[in-house]
Amino acid sequence: MVRAAVLPAVGAPLEIAEIDLPDPGPGQVRIRLAAAGVCHSDLSLSNGTMRVPVPAVLGHEGAGTVVAVGEGVTHVSPGAPVILNWAPSCGTCHACTLGEVWLCANALNGAADVYAHRTSDGSDLHPGLNVAAFAEETVVSASCVLPLPDGIPLTDAALLGCAVLTGYGAIHHSARVREGETVAVFGVGGVGLSTLQSARIAGATTIVAVDVSPEKEELARAAGATDYVVASENTAREIRALTGKQGVDVAVECVGRAVTIRTAWESTRRGGRTTVVGIGGKDQQVTFNALELFHWGRTLSGCVYGNSDPAKDVPVLAEHVRAGRLDLGALVTERIALEGIPAAFENMVAGKGGRALVMF
Question: What pTM did the predictor assign?
Answer without folding.
Answer: 0.96
